[in-house]
Write a structure and sequence with these properties.
6% of the residues lie in helices and 42% in strands. It contains 4 helices and 25 strands. It is globular and about 75 Å long. The chain starts with 30 loop residues before the first helix and ends with a strand.
């Protein structure tokens, strides 16, 4: 499609205002449609009680319909362990008139909640309310409401013991190189930025495109066009030995946000990245890192909120699970290109080539991500997707916080609510990077 808007014609016009609804001009479903549907669903779903001894979960449903009894619907439920559905079931909803609350009791003994808590497994229950019979406007099984509830929180990343051939370190005027035959990292001596990361001889990063702070995000109504990251020209780098591992400690000061990134390199070929962000402004768009990933790693599997695009203030229409996509598919094709494709609550991200070789990134703490073939500046400067040229690498964002979208479409002071803005306080997360494949 080549969708045109007011931007393509002389005025008077309102840009792409008439093309920016919850259903796009191309008429497919959208993340905005899913969010609006969730916000307006007529059944409030809660989980008032969990009995871990007998393995019983209570699901309560308040009927907000005026003329519909909830006994027309079924509850379809899924128990999810570490992002994978382990078993499903269906239960009818009892007679529940308008304004009343009905309950169903679901057996979860198979899930073994107490064991999951001890092991640090994440255990979730997905609840879908669907029509039992076909309607004049929808088939049997059509979903009218959904919710997701946590039975067991995910635990921290497991402790790793060092094993394998020791790491060699060489430093010159321009760079520091650390590694062995399984893993190798290269850092710029002046900026302290990671410039290369290789596992078993396969480079993961695009040339020189290692982790660096980024603050740019282009949302059309936000109009924030400053692409500067505010970082000082030089950084600090220090190499130390801790518990048999080599740790590279880097510091980069900036006018917008200071960053401290520590890389713990395990000889067996694993890298832990501990990142700390210290904002210096109440008006940041992001507190996170960006890097360039080798373009061949175009197969994406992720364990996070999905499958639709979501942000910190737009997560009602999505649930945590395991999903697959590609960089090209992650870019939501808004009529006017803009920052898109974000997924909140990242637990695990796997990027592989067509042979199944690549990298896995596990997280600890709050992380959102996007992986697109464009920079945010590319999206900002483009008028149409069909005019855009993909970068020769994938732009991977890993944010401790990205500012919410808000609703600054008209009126005064209707932008992002304060609770969804980037907090002006220290934030941390950990990434565990390891190779995938042979």
């Amino acid at each position: 499609y080549r969708i045109h808007t007011g931007y393509d014609y002389p005025g008077p016009h309102q840009g792409n205002f008439c093309s920016n609804g919850i259903i796009p001009p191309t008429r497919e479903e959208s993340a905005k449609l899913k969010e609006v549907k969730a916000a307006h669903q007529f059944i409030d779903i809660t989980m008032p009680e969990v009995n871990t001894e007998y393995g019983i979960v209570t699901i309560a449903m308040k009927n907000k319909y005026n003329f519909t009894n909830l006994n027309e619907f079924n509850v379809v439920y899924e128990f999810v362990k570490n992002g994978k559905i382990v078993y499903t079931g269906t239960s009818p909803i009892p007679h529940t008139e308008s304004g009343s609350t009905g309950k169903v009791w679901l057996t979860v003994k198979k899930a073994n909640i107490n064991r999951a808590i001890k092991r640090g497994d994440e255990l979730l229950i997905n609840v879908h309310i669907v029509y039992r019979d076909a309607q004049s406007f929808a088939p049997a099984g059509h979903e009218v409401a959904m919710g997701q509830f946590t039975l067991s929180e995910r635990g921290p990343l497991a402790t790793i013991k060092s094993k394998g051939a020791p790491l060699a370190a060489t430093s010159s005027l321009h760079e520091t190189v650390i590694g062995n035959e399984k893993v190798q990292l290269t850092f710029d001596a002046e900026t302290a930025q990671l410039t290369a990361l290789a596992f078993n001889g396969k480079n993961i990063l695009a040339d020189g495109q290692g982790f660096i702070y980024d603050n740019h995000r282009w949302i059309e109504n936000d109009r924030f066009s400053n692409t500067s990251n505010g970082l000082e020209a030089n950084g600090e780098i220090k190499v130390v030995e801790e518990n048999g591992n080599t740790v590279v400690k880097t510091v980069r000061k900036g006018s917008l946000c200071d960053t401290e990134i520590n890389y713990t390199i395990y000889p067996q070929g694993i890298v832990d990245v501990d990142a700390k962000f210290v904002p210096k402004s109440d008006n940041l768009r992001r507190a996170g890192l960006v890097c360039g990933i080798d373009k061949s790693l175009s197969n994406i599997s992720y364990y996070a909120y999905g499958p639709w695009e979501n942000t910190v203030d737009r997560k009602d229409g999505v649930i945590v699970g395991r999903y697959t996509t590609t960089p090209a598919q992650m870019a939501d094709r808004y009529v006017k290109p803009q920052s898109s494709g974000s997924r909140e609550g990242l637990r695990e991200l796997v990027l592989t080539d067509d042979a199944g070789l690549g990298v896995k990134i596990e997280t600890e703490g709050n992380v959102s991500f996007s992986a697109l073939p464009y920079t945010d500046a590319d999206l900002m400067n483009a008028q149409h997707y069909w005019e855009m040229e993909e970068r020769p690498y994938t732009v991977l964002h890993l944010d401790a916080w990205m500012r919410g979208i808000g609703n600054a479409s008209c009126g005064h002071d209707v932008g992002t609510l304060p609770e969804y803005c980037v907090p002006n306080e220290e934030m941390n997360y950990k990434l565990r990077i390891s190779p995938v494949g042979k």
